[in-house]
Amino acid sequence: MAEEVKVFRTWSSPFALRIVWALKLKGVEYETIFEDLTNKSSLLLQYNPVHKKVPVLVHNGKHMAESLVILEYVEETWKGTPLLPEDPYEKAMARFWAKFGDDKIAPSIFHAFVSQGKEQEEAIAPVMENLKFIEEELKGKKFFGGETIGFVDLALGWIANLISVLEEIIGLKFIEAEKFPLLVEWIENFSDVPVIKENWPPRDKLITKFIATRERILAAAAAAPK
């Protein structure tokens, strides 16, 4: 009997892409259910009643949410193409850097993206500081996982595509070769892997989406009581 593997996602979610990449790297066949987050399906609300968002993985009737949690489940369930190292310390550090991306890098970049003027200028410093940490982590490596793509690469994979979209919209450059040569090289190596580049969302649609997102947030901030 064939396994039931379903991924609930949106076309643009960088967090859901982690699951897509992991399943494809491991050769796992799955069904994609695209969600409209302005009109969430009853199944999405049933499977993720806490956060009510994507991604959600359903495997043989069991469902789970949160992309890093799902990534670990995928790693432990399908052993082909390991994503985490065997060494306990290295495994712990991989989890640390993956969480660092979600807790520090993503919020700092998004804050800089949806601010302007003096607030934006002040928001850039934390972005640079956070990027320096992962630049250091790449020393002597092709990927964060070594010579092959691993858990941290998938967790930080959104950087390889989405940051350039945000940069184009606001006319700022976060990642330059002079400041972050290893990160630039990693972006090229990561983006050149077929499973990765074949599943990027359309760039023009991302630009349109994030322009609208930025305008909406700036308008709400301007209308808020001072």
TrEMBL record:
Residues of the GST N-terminal domain: 3-82
Similarity annotation: Belongs to the GST superfamily. HSP26 family.
UniProt entry keywords in alphabetical sequence: Transferase
One GO term describing the cellular component: cytoplasm
Catalytic activity: RX + glutathione = an S-substituted glutathione + a halide anion + H(+)
Cross-referenced InterPro entries: Glutathione-S-Trfase_C-like, Glutathione-S-Trfase_C_sf, Glutathione_S-Trfase, Glutathione_S-Trfase_N, GST_C, GST_C_Tau, Omega/Tau-like, Thioredoxin-like_sf
Alphabetical list of PROSITE patterns matching this protein: GST_CTER, GST_NTER
KW Translocase (keyword) present: no
Gene Ontology biological process terms, A to Z: glutathione metabolic process
EC annotation from Swiss-Prot or TrEMBL: 2.5.1.18
Domain of life: Eukaryota
Single GO MF descriptor: glutathione transferase activity
Start and end residues of each GST C-terminal domain: 87-210
Pfam families: GST_C, GST_N
Protein name as catalogued: Probable glutathione S-transferase
